[in-house]
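User: Second chain of the day. Same drill as before.
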Amino acid sequence: MQKVTVDSIIEKIQLNKVHYYIVVTAALGFMFDSFDTYIVAYAMPSIIKEWAITPVQNGMLTSAGFWGMFLGSMILGPVADRFGRKLGFILTIMGFSVLTGLTALSGDVYQFGIIRFLTGMFLGGMIPINTAMVSEYVSAKHRGRFAAVLTILWPFGLLAASLASLTLVTTHGWRVLFYIGALPAMLAIVVVWKVPESPRWLSIRGRTRDVGKVLKKLGARDEDLVGLESEKLAEKVPVTVLLHKQYIRRFILTGGYYFFSYFGYYGFVLWLPTILATVYNLDLARTFTYTLYVAIAAILGRLTAFYTIEKFGRKQLFYVGFGIGGVAALVFGQLQDPSMLVIGACVLSWLYEQGVAGTVVWTAELYPSQVRATATCWSTGLGRVSSAVAPVVFGYFMANGMYYAIFVTMAISFWIAVALVFFLGIETKGKTLQEVGAA
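Assistant: Same format as last time:
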């Protein structure tokens, strides 16, 4: 007789409205996280003029939030594994929304940097916790595309930041972006009422009765639950669990591709508005118009990933997005004509956004429930370290006239991530979490 587990029941459940509440809510979390992350880049051209800061100071202010993200991901991942995905989601969105609003009140560089660091602590947990949560409600048939939906909403946050910058900053100043960034706090109310706790997390905590209630909300019948037993862990999971033999190879893979791909990705994306304004001497209106086109290309990149992820698998997202994206970066750095510049930036954006979608979707599929939030948060945390360092390094390049070094560094970083995927990655397309050792 086949053992009845949460995993086996979820594989039989058809999608219903609760699944869609979960994915829509989580996707909105991604979009708001994205908006909050990118508004710093769009505020920087104005902040540079107001506070007369140098390129290196620019990079340090931009990276302050990422250092906070690193610390937050280290802390909030274990919190979500210990106290639940739902609480983790609520904490992250309330925290970064309130602090983003306070950023608008900054009176100088130091206040701005401190508040952005604190904001980053909550931003650092949003994406990995969301991804871990969504992967635990749906079958293998739908898991990839559900997680991919989250990544599609990420560039919509970039688009919203571009639109807000284009229409509001030139007349109301940069602080208006951060006032808008406080609005996502309202999403926490939706989470409280509409999103149930993860059944897989409830199971490993030994809460069998609650598991049954959630599975029935997701579409399970009473007869499906007959024989369902608790999968409660016999002992607490140690902090060093990801360094154990059964996880270390996967952690090198996921932490490695986050670190290297994010170094190139965020180093470029967060500097792009400033590059356009200072290197190419574009005015703010034209700068924000160009970045608006780039945001649209990013959305198309994520939509491409949504289509190809279940057709061709997870690995191809890295090969196309970062492999070919590295080549595109080297070409982009040579462009001088403004019309070709915007085309090159859009092609580059379309490519690397597919790779970034791969990092988000794949990571949560490689780890079991007892460590899923920790593993995704800590892997993302390594990406936050490189995301914090990259703006400073790229700022050094800019300050010393080493403009093309930005794109060489970007390409090398992308290709290292691709090499890790090629040598260490296992394809998860169409496989249950149990089949890939992640039930």
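The CA atoms of residues 59 and 391 lie 5 Å apart.

User: Great, on to the next one.
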